[in-house]
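My hope is that you will study the record closing this message with an eye to the fold:
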Amino acid sequence: MSGKKIKGLMERLEGGEMVIGAEGYIFYFERLGYLQAGSWVPRVVLEHPELVRNAYRDFVHNGSDVVLAFTYYATREKTRLVDREDITENLNRQALKMAREVADETGTLMAGNICNTNIYQPDKLERHQEIKAMFKEMITWAVEAGADYIVGETFAHFGEAMLAVEAIKEHGKGLPMVIMMAPFIVATKNNQAITADKVLLTEACKKLKEAGADVIGLNCGRGPSTMMPLMKDIMKACPGPYAAVPVPYRCNEQQPTFFMLTDPKTGEKLFPTDTDVLSCSRADITEFGQQCKQLGINYVGVCCGNRPFYTRSLAESLGRSPKASEFSPDMTKHYVYGTHSKVKKDVADESMDLYHTLGDIE
């Protein structure tokens, strides 16, 4: 670990700074062909560690303040699903070790990660014990790896999120925690958003905050346009700091979550492998970042579907210039659309005409 002291998460947030925490590794590596959609077990951490290390670096290069260890879905429940429970500890420790190393070399924060286990049911108390055990070991490994804070994310059930808060308080050695509910549920109660266990989303966030969550908010499931109204309600219900980490897809009122998105051409369901059809533009992510800044949501990121260029757009929307901004688009030197004096105007004019004219020409 480097000896250089950097500001911690809460020091930054309490000082009014915004923190960008890049997420989305599950979809990222599925799109690269190193992770299977369905089970989503991140074996790539062990099988191709150099790719994971480079992904960490790429997101920092594009403006992330945080290296989030790729331990999402690295639970024993997930590894059991593919008959590889034996890799659970090594997978977690490797992801954390690389995240710590990249954070140290780049001067960024490193976060441990726990998440939805997909076995929670309110009345299945024996499962609660299983979940507590999974959280305990993952938090312990994160602490031992030198995590600066813990992210608990993508909880559709309030009860499971509360188990996460309790586990981090018990085993996290005082590390700050960012707790994010997943707004997957589109049904409402009295026209208000609810969790999977039918608790008002605003009340769930309020109780999680009271129980010890340092940062509270939402991640995954919804795009910027359908997540932000829920964030505004949460901000009225409980104190911050707040987190908003949407998926980069154009969800809408009729299809509020990416589970519901359909192909405009075929009507077929897009989740999970064809959601790119309705990807956000970079301008959409810029608008999201600006909204967060205006509202006072100061822990931000992009979830499943994230790419480094989205993180750069988010950083630039906050007035930052990460190293990758050296290569932000500059169309003034494009051979068709360019206005620079060195661009051949005759070629630009001819191309503009030819490339935009439909039908027969002489």
